[in-house]
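Same chain as my last thread, 200 residues:
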Amino acid sequence: MNSAKNVWIVLLAFMPASLLFGQKFGVGAHAGYNLSSLQINNPQIKTYKGYGGAMVGAWFRYGGMFYIQPEVNYHFSRSEVTYTSQDGLTTQNGSLNTHYLQAVIAPGVRPINTKMFQLRLGPAASYSVMIDENLRKLDLKNSQLKNGAWHAGFFTGVNIWRFSVDVRYFVSLNNQSSIPDQRFKSNTFQAALGFTLFGR
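reply #2:
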């Protein structure tokens, strides 16, 4: 419950900043590819391969040349894992599927900003809360991941008329493992195709 509240706190905390970036306002939606690459030091996990998944969400943009863009996204990823039991006698292959609700804040600049074409770039920060996970063919009750994950990174995007293409890369800022002396961190790549519903 607290993790879900953090998503809205991140978004609402930055809403007043829109007053600093002018009165221009836009709303849009986007969808695309999400690839989370976990860095794991669990000795029982022998191999790990991330295959990615999908993301879909909505964004709200305030400002002109300088702007701020809050987003709410849903994304999931699938990973294949080779797992060895604690006694070391059995090895299993299975998949780890995670589903997240993500809040993103992306302050940006538009060095090219015309009616038909825009170039956008800047930093980005996000908070993701796990809403579901599924472990298939693995003798585990859960992945022992914490519900919340903080990330920071950068993005670049282009707009042609009302269509947009964005790519971004996030680096994990916190250990997602709930077990002492174990590290789970996820760096995330996202690429999305979007459409501006109104505004810009």
